Structures are given as C-alpha cells and as structure tokens.
C-alpha cells in the first residue's frame, strides 16, 4: 500500500467512529428504516469497542506511526507527539458505551500502539531511546486513570469543564515543552479536542 491508501483507511476509521459514537444516527427518528439503521450502528459500535479489536487497532496505528516516521516528515512528527494520541484517546473514551470498557480499551489500545511502535525497530535491531520508551510505557500504564478522568467530562458542571480545559492545556503544554511547539497542527488538535469535549451533554451520566 502507498501512503495515500494508509491515510484513507485511517481517516475513514476515525470518521466512522465519530459518526457512530457522536449520534450520527438518531434512535428516535421515525423515518422508514430508521430502527434498522440504529440497530446496525449499535451492533457496529459493540463490535468496534471489543477489547481485542481496540488492541489490534492500537497495534496497527503503532505500525503506521513507524511507517510515517520513516517515509514522511510532518505526519511522522504529528504521530510522534502526545497530542494526536490524546485526541484519539478522548474520542475513544467519550463515545464508549460505559466507563469500565472505556478504561480497558484505552489501556489495551495504548499497549498495542507502544508494543508495535517500539517492537518493530527492536526486531530490526535499530537503536531506540530508552527515555522515550519509558515515557510512552508510563503513558500506557496510566491510560486507564486518564480515561476515567476523561469519562467525567461527559457530565455537566464545573468539574467536567475544568477537566476538559486541563486535557486541552496538557496537550498544548506537552507540545511546547517536549516537542518545541506549538505548530499549526498542535493548534488544530486543540481545537478538535475542544469540539469533542464541549459537545452538548446529553445527560448527567
């Protein structure tokens, strides 16, 4: 596959996740075929959030990141930073069926990504930065706790708002402190985070 085909598959998957999770299909609509479409979307969502699927998706994204590091510049830089992974994690958690599954999936997806991102160079006997391995391993280890905090942003109230702002601020600060940012894509990621985190709250769950 060429780079364009990899990007098409990745962006299509993200768009599908946002559409299904974000209520692209309304369960209360009375149009013909609406109920069938809703049940199909729920079946897909149940399949998508299966822990094995999320682990494999994380592994695929880790492999894709290695590919982008080697053969691109800007995309490789984007997928080497925390921001894009925070955005993907927030989308994964925010649209998950429940908090427990969100925490588990976030952990397994992070583990799959880290294993493949550093496992491929290790198998090819390439030099790997121990500092970055430890950093990303800690990121994966604490991902369930971060997912739990992200889940709380689904609620209404001051705490949810503060947590949402903290996530956006952490993404921006990490780009500045760790990766000599901010760059244009750091700003775009922060705007996308704001768009997801400040979606209208459907309930006080």
What does this structure look like?
This protein has 205 residues and is mainly α. It is built from ten helices and no strands. Helix 5 (82-94) packs antiparallel against helix 6 (99-123). The longest helix is centred in the middle third of the chain and has 25 residues, at 99-123. The N and C termini lie far apart (42 Å). The model is unreliable at 1-33 (pLDDT under 50).
Ordered list of secondary-structure elements with their pairings:
Blueprint: H1 3-21, H2 34-48, H3 51-71, H4 74-78, H5 82-94, H6 99-123, H7 130-141, H8 143-152, H9 158-179, H10 184-197
Helix/strand/pairing category = mainly alpha
On the 0 to 100 scale, the average pLDDT is: 78
Helix content: over 70%
What's the overall geometry? globular
> What's the total helix number?
10
Catalogue the unreliable spans.
1-33
Biggest sheet layout:
none
* Euclidean distance between termini CA atoms: 42 Å
Number of strands: 0
Order of helices and strands: HHHHHHHHHH
Determine the strand fraction and express it as a percent band.
under 5%
The whole-angstrom Rg is: 18 Å
Give a short summary of the structure.
76% of the residues lie in helices and 0% in strands.
